[in-house]
Structures are given as C-alpha cells and as structure tokens.
Amino acid sequence: MLGTVTPMTPPRAQTLTAVLEAEIVTLDPHFTPAYITRTFGYMVFDTLFAMNGAGEVRPQMVQDWTRSPDGLTWTFTLRDGLKWHDGTPVTAADCVASLRRWFTRSALGRRLGEATATLEARDAKTFVLTLRAPFGLVLETLGTTSSPGPFMIPERLARTPGTERIPEIIGSGPFVFRREDHRPGDRMLLRRNTAYVPRPEPADHLAGGKVVRIDALDIRVVPDGATVVAAMRSGEIDYMQYAPFDMLSVLERDRRIRLVNFSGLEQFTGHYRTNAASGPFSDPAIRRVLLSLVDQSEVMAGMGLSDRYSRTCNAFFICGSPYESDVGTEPMQRPSIEAAREALRQTRYAGEPVIVLVANDLEAPKISSEILADRLRRAGFNVDMQVMDWASVLARRTRRDGWSVFGVHALGVDLHNPLTNSVIGFNCTGATTGGFHCEARLTPLFDAFAAAPTLQERQRIAAEIQGILYEQGIAVPWGQFAQPAAHRAQLHNLITSAIPLFWNVEKR
C-alpha cells in the first residue's frame, strides 16, 4: 500500500493523486530538456502562446499581436489579470527577460535569438520583437512544445544565467509550487492557483482556458510500474502516466480503469542512433545497411504492442505530422536479413565489433536494442552486446569510442520539426551526445527551414533533409507507438495529451 494522504494536503480538499514517468528533480523550466521538467513547467508556469489539439498555435498569455508588412517587427500585448504566484503582476519586462534566458537553452529558441535584432518592453504590457532577418516560425517558436519550453518567469529570476538554476520556483500558471509541499524521493503537492485568470475559450490541449477543478495535485514517486497498477486498481492512485506494456491487457479488462491512447504527434518514435566517430558505423555505407535490416514490425511485436498502440513509419519526421515524407525510404519498405547481408558484402566491413548498448532499466530501449543485436548477427556483423542501465548508456554515448549503436525514443511533438528533432539537432555542433555526426549539407537546410515563409516551402526542405539523413544512414527509425496513460474511471474531462495536463479534469 502507498499510504494515505498526509497533512500536507489541504483539509477536505479534492486531491488527484498521480504517478508520472519519473520524479521531478529539476524544477527550473529552462534548465533541462527532460520531459518530466516540461510537464512540471506546464503546471506551474505559463507560455505566451500554446498549441491546440489540431497542432495550431494560439495565444495564451498574449492578448493580441501585430506583425509589420515586411514580417520583421512583431508587437505583443499581454492579457489582463496575469499575476505571479507571489502576487506581483506579470510585466512585459518579465517576458522579455524570460525569452532572452530561454534563447540560451533551447535549440529552436537559439535560432529565433540569432534572428533577433532587438527585443524590448515598450510598456508594462507590451513588448516588441524586431528581427534582423526573416524568420518564418516566430509564433511556432513562442508556442513550441519542444523541451525545454518557453516558460515565463519573473525578471529577477530570469537574470539567472542559463547555466545556473533559478533560486526560487515562482510561476504564473494554474498550479502553485511551495517548497514545504515537496519531499524529494517521496511526493510533491501542487495546489490550485486561486488567483489564476484562465482564458475565456474552452480548454483545447495546451491552449484555451486552464480551469482547475481540483484543489490539489498529489504527485507520488513510485518507481515500480506493477506497484502503481496495483495501487490504481485499489483506488489509491488516480492517474498513471505510462501504463506498463505487459499489463495493458489486464487494465483493458478492468472496468474501474480507463486507458488513454495517443496518435500522431502524441506518439513516440524510436530511432537507432549510430556512432560516426569510430568503429564500423563511421562508414556511411555500413550505416546504410541498417535501412534494409531494421524490421519495425518485429520491434513492435517484441514490445507486445498491437496495431491499436503502434504502427510502422519510415518518415523521419514521423507519420501524422506536417512533415511526413517517403523520400529516401525505399530500402526500408521491405526489410530483409538477406538484403542486409548482401548490402554488407558490398561494403568494406571486415568483421570489426559492433558494440550495441542495451539499457536494462527502460523497456522500449531494451527491447529495441536486443532485437537489433540479433538481426545484426544474422546479417553477418560481429556483435558485442553490452548491457547497462540507461544512465550508463547516456554516459557512454559521450565517448567517441566504446559504442556503435543504441535504441532510444522520443515524443513526436519534439521529433516532427527538423529544428527540434533531438536525433539530428547535434549535427556538426561538436556536442558529445549526438553520435558525432557532421553532414555539412544539413546546416544550410536548417537555416533555410527557419527562414521559409510558408508551410509548403518548409515541407519541401524537410523532405530534402530526410533524403540526406537516409542517404548517410545517420539514424534509422524502429517504430512509432503510444505508451498509454491509465486513470480511474471517476476522472472526467481529462485532456488527451502525452504531456500530462491536469486542468479541466474533474474527480467525481
């Protein structure tokens, strides 16, 4: 048993108890791209713009805005009623300082920052962004879901360098964080912000009116999924962000539980990431063998996922996104061990070890990497499969040697845009976390994508980027899938989102 609600919960309050993907360790919303910090950010902080369920960017803290005919000057006016959790009003100067700090932490934000000539507050509610060069994604950037998100914080906190964590957690969002309500390693209690003024329109994913209908959100730290499922079935837990794959059939049959499935941008896409710095996969021809070797259907089956929760998808910027394309996917359409073996014979491969890193504490990376290791052996590679925890995989991948390939997955809301896609975001940057790839042709294409004035032009550029990625074998997708959330049946009006959202929901 997980125990009962303790005195940190408001008396007679209606409290929703949730277990999220991991413990919320980093509370500074700009400091890390960790998904769990982004989830915390949307609860405690707010954004200038936000994405609705159709993927459209809508104003959130902003009331209205104008754009000059040449597209270089943008003027934004904040809506009435915005207050920080300490009771002080949100000002345009706060937003300017927040954006400047976020520009230093986000790949997409950095591009907007580089295109910016000036960013200044005109008065308490108005600020002006003047560009030095065309940038076709101004609103998409200010409303991006990519992590770390463009969350607003008070100016005095935004002066904290991006390399340091802010000393206080003060937002303007629908829930309030108090340090005394946080017991690291155990639980965090977020209380409803009674001073929050929601937008008048209905809630629509991350956009619209964030009306909180519960008094408190009690976030528990419970690492074992089976324990959480048992607690949910007994009524101790109301919501679980990731239902274990091997327990989906059990939960589907329980009338007290509802599973929340996801599609499109709300799904995960898995990729095999290769090391271009050393070993066999420093050769693009050998990397390209993976295109005909990887069988996405086998990986999805290995994870125990039916067609209800998964699909094969060769589009690098995911299926169901505006940038879905089939350019360069021909070798991937009919995966075959025999085809891969023949392709390998045409390369200079001479039996060097292929070191496959397998994370034994994360279900999807573990299964995907084990399946790849088996197929590599059958195709003629000399495989050295090394098993370790995920933290060790992350540490190992920063080295230029000692690894060849591993499986990883991320959400479509991040992967669908070439400028926020974490698989290729480190291209030619010298960063030690992206496989040390440097394809010079991609850099001007990223710049052109950012400057493109229309969706059609961005789609053309994204398809060209995808063609180069597959030509060079920089990464290979291993499937697109959902890891459903689960909740008790008495929760109503829960917003369907892979980023857990707890406004609008009612507990009856």
UniProtKB/TrEMBL annotation:
It comes from the Bacteria. It is found in: Periplasm. Signal peptide: none annotated. The keyword Transmembrane helix does not apply. InterPro entries: Peptide/Ni-bd, SBP_5, SBP_5_dom. Residues 56-402 form the Solute-binding protein family domain. Gene3D superfamilies: Dipeptide-binding Protein, Domain 3 (3.10.105.10), Periplasmic binding protein-like II (3.40.190.10). One of its GO terms (biological process) is peptide transport. Transmembrane segments: none annotated. Its main location: periplasm. SUPFAM superfamilies: Periplasmic binding protein-like II. GO terms for molecular function: peptide transmembrane transporter activity. Keywords: Signal. GO terms for cellular component: ATP-binding cassette (ABC) transporter complex; outer membrane-bounded periplasmic space. Belongs to the bacterial solute-binding protein 5 family. This is ABC transporter substrate-binding protein. It comes from Neoroseomonas eburnea.
